[in-house]
Amino acid sequence: MVDQDLKPNGSAYSLSQVSQYLSYIGLNESFHPSSSPVLDLAYLTTIFQAQLTSFPYENLSIHYNPSHSISLDPQELFTKLITSPRRGRGGYCMELSIFFSHILRALGFTAIHYSGVRNRNRTNGVPQGNYNGYVHLVNIVTLPNTTLQYVLDAGFGGDGPTFPLPLTEHIIHHNTIGTQEIRYIRDWLPDQRFRDESRGALKQWVYQYRNSPEKEWNSYYAFVPEHEFTEQDFGNLNVYLSECKTNHQTYTILVIRFLRGEEGPQKIKGKLVKVCKTEEERTGMLKELFGIELTEEEKGAIKGWASELKGE
């Protein structure tokens, strides 16, 4: 008999919690480690796309929260996402990707690590200018008995990859939704000064997207897979991202959900984005479209914040 309290591969989550997770995302016990599933690309893709369509990208805990802060503690994340009676919550990049990393380890994936990511700000919807400092993260997974690495971005929101993206250069992939295409290239950052590869300098892996084959490629974010980040690193970054008043996360509310197709939890058919003008409209939309119902205390926490909607 499998010990349901076991926490495999350094995961914070037990096999009992894995069962709760699988039930929440709509997958049966055949995906549970006790059923000895094959941990291949098809399995990983199903888990990843069910994850994307179950938990919206949202930063509400920064705004509708008396403390205006975010916890990255894995057990607190599990409570927020899975066991809280107020279902429908998601999180922003560090919440979702750290949560998902612990889930993957509990499912049996052993070769998995975090990589810190720099992105570019968008102007009129197009990434432009220099890359920011580290503000994001991805999980990098090597499947058992293979050498090919896959990048899983569980918390990027719109224009992020909707399936495990192989870490290979210049191969163009259809991104599930519409006509959007994505790929990786390797390149130096514009302001990267150390470029001597003979002395260990590393080019960045740059994630690019374009909304149709006729469009120009947009370079959106960059990372170095060989440079492993720890949860302590992201704990430091989380303070900046969630509390610094000049960071866009603290003055912009974002809620984006990928929509699940009729074929099953692993099929993504679109994403949901809505613009609101008043607090009443926004909190009503959160309940109606996302199933997120805020308490009166949470609603009141946004008063006086830059992100408060006043109907102007």
Automatic annotation (TrEMBL):
Gene Ontology MF term list: acetyltransferase activity
InterPro entries, A to Z: Arylamine_N-AcTrfase (IPR001447), Arylamine_NAT_domain_sf (IPR053710), Papain-like_cys_pep_sf (IPR038765)
Domain of life: Eukaryota
Protein family membership: Belongs to the arylamine N-acetyltransferase family.
Stated name of the protein: Arylamine N-acetyltransferase
Lineage: Eukaryota, Fungi, Dikarya, Ascomycota, Pezizomycotina
